[in-house]
Specification:
four-stranded antiparallel beta sheet; two-stranded parallel sheet; 8 strands
Length: 191
């Protein structure tokens, strides 16, 4: 959903609502006022919408989304539920999304529920990270020789992209770049 009104309408119809937060879209700030109203928010989820590698390194991943949610006034426990149990329920990931005997869980321990700075990561019963130290080693990635340099392209020059309408101007459709990841079809005139 992209607005409070749309979220309210979907919830009233019994639909779950994904609130996107990421590189491509960030609807969380727009929808955050919804949480300040007296409404049932059980169908609301926080989801990422693509993160650039730079964002991941600088901000983190879903802990960043959690931090944003809390900064917009959403209760921290509500934020955690929207990132875990509700997403698992929506996608019918049975026995996931919570910490309960018999359930499968990857767990992160955080310093506090405002900053969500990750202190410990446990996955499949193994501690992977503790106090900023990686506790496991990963073998280096190896690729077969034919994997590298497998795409061969001819040399491209600016002139290759020029188009002429000939003697009469012509209307053509072009793809306009709106942001680094969003494009839009537009019409222009070639002369």
């Amino acid at each position: 959903s992209t607005s409070v009104e749309e979220a309210r309408e979907k919830l009233a119809l019994g639909m779950d609502v994904m609130i996107r937060c990421g590189y491509i879209r960030n609807d969380l700030k727009t929808i955050a006022p919804f949480f300040l109203q007296d409404v049932d928010t059980n169908g609301l989820m926080l989801v990422s919408d693509g993160f650039s590698p730079k964002m991941l390194v600088l901000n983190g991943y879903l802990n960043y989304v959690a931090r944003l949610g809390v900064s917009y006034g959403i209760d921290p426990v509500e934020v955690v539920k929207m990132l875990t149990i509700r997403v698992a329920r929506h996608f019918q990931l049975n026995r996931r999304g919570g910490i309960t005997p018999g359930w499968l869980a990857d767990i992160i321990a955080v310093e506090d529920l405002r900053d969500f700075s990750v202190k410990t990561v446990v996955s499949e019963g193994h501690v992977l990270l503790h106090n900023g130290t990686l506790e496991v080693s990963f073998p280096p990635a190896s690729f077969p020789d034919d994997f590298r340099n497998s795409i061969v392209m001819p040399e491209v020059h600016e002139i290759d992209f020029y188009q002429s309408a000939g003697k009469t101007p012509a209307k053509v459709k072009v793809i306009a770049i709106k942001t680094e990841t969003v494009t839009e079809m537009e019409e222009t005139t070639l002369e």
